Amino acid sequence: MQPQLLDGRYQIEQLLGEGGMARVYLGRDLRLQRPVAIKIPHPHLMTDPDFLARFRHEAHAAAMVSHPNLVDIYDVGQDGDRHYIVMEYVAGVTLKQLINREAPFAVPRAVRIGEQIARGLHAAHRAGLIHRDIKPQNIIVTDDGQVRITDFGVAKSHLSTAMTETGITLGTADYIAPEQAQGRPATPQSDIYAVGIVLYEMLTGRLPFTGDNPVAVVMKHISEPPPPPRRYNPRIPAALEAIILRALAKDPTQRQRTALELAEELHNYEQLVTQVTVVSPQLEPSPARPPNPNPPRSAQITASRPTAIPSPRQAAVRNSRQEGLGCGAFFVGMLMLVGILAVVFLISTGVFNNLFVNNPIRPSTTLSPGGQSTNSDPTPTLVTTTTVPELVGLSDGEARERLQQNRLLPAPSSEHNRDVPQGIVITQTIPPGTIVEVNSPVSYTVSLGPLLVEVPNVTGTREDIAANQLQAAGFAVEIVKEPHPTIDTDFVIRQSPSATLRIPQGDRVTIYVSLGDVVRFPDVIGRSRAEAEAILANTPGVILVFIDVQGRDRIPDFDRYAPNQVVSAAREAGNSYVGLNNGDYIPRGSRIVLGVRAEE
Which of 133, 151, 174, 490 is catalytic? Predict the structure, then answer.
């Protein structure tokens, strides 16, 4: 149980929420008499020096940034062995709650929210702080529409020497940037990508990428283009859609260069929509001038700026003297007649015969020593063929040898495969038995064996975050629940295989998750009273307080049970009782009541 007063100043009032690393409480600063939000790490993380160093460092880094769209950090402290961060308390709802209730948003509303998010991130980026987990759940919207970004718990400062935080390297799968999903460092453009997803969700009421599990969603972020948001909401202006799709570019260099640039694009998008091209007014026709036979060079260059389009010219009026054919027309007609006669002559002499025959190879005509011509037919080219052998299942060396024996060229490639041993041919492009020309290339694929992936360290993280991270790395996950006296409920106690080992992608990783400080209720129901009492006496964490002897009036099927046989069990819970079964997990120190069949 958390203390009700921290450092004699901050009064804890009620729990507001809980995340993977900490709980957030509504509190009150008794010195300044104002409400505050107090973040306190989970108890089992209080003993992790690396986590505490990150916790304090990132809190100090976030405290250096002040902006109307960021939640302010007031204080960072320690009370005994409990560390805490005191933040501004913002009354409002999360953007995720608004999206669930009201999406799709009207375009002006979504743009105003997106612009405020981008401006807040720009302030953080200028201070060297990258959020890395922008999502609607981490954005608070007040009643008057003000936006505040919170939860920099995943944030990374440029001053930090730590690597990624355990369990949150990938952020949230629905909003993760492709480069983060591939394990590369997050940059300001990673936050911009997440803002693009948030804009998309506000305007369409849906996410651009969905899947059956986090791995499927992450792979779509990496490889698939987002569906255009106007497909789901035609009211989105085309200019706004272009801004969103630019933010969602796979290549970070293709996104907006800064969050401020994104904010300005959103602020000015309406101007981009309404911007019109100004056409120069029509020039009045000028008096006719004699043509200049040598125009200046600059007049021959097309100007890049818009020019007025002149009015169509009026048809020139011929003089009556020009109505006849004239000498020039007669000369042109004579040239055309001569050309036609020349073509007819050439065709009649067979000059064009080679151009119109179907067979491109004609017999060549040569002169014999006696002067007589002889025709020699060309020798046809002979094509040598061979058969493609079966390669699948052979080793790479055997496949090469088999192809070379058949006078074919090996063209191997390789890929990882869980089911085929390393060095064995998986597939071939040309089916065996196909007849091909000698020296043809034959492509085939050789197995590299399974892809070995390093197991991430998820010990100490919350169950859902740990499972998501392991699945995103390509592992199957098995969850085993067990009690633990110090690890909070739903947090990972240990894992198998251990972190940093490289194992085949797709293998199973088992995580052991804490049920909290509980004990297993032993198998006493169905035993005799004496056996049950002895077992409970030797079970740490349970206290037998009462034996309830029950007669025929209280036990259905009374005759099924032997005298003094335990027929039921319960534990005290305040002023009532909670029924128990053999094997149930119950809080340590539970007080037990056994129901026993009476003797007759």
Answer: 133
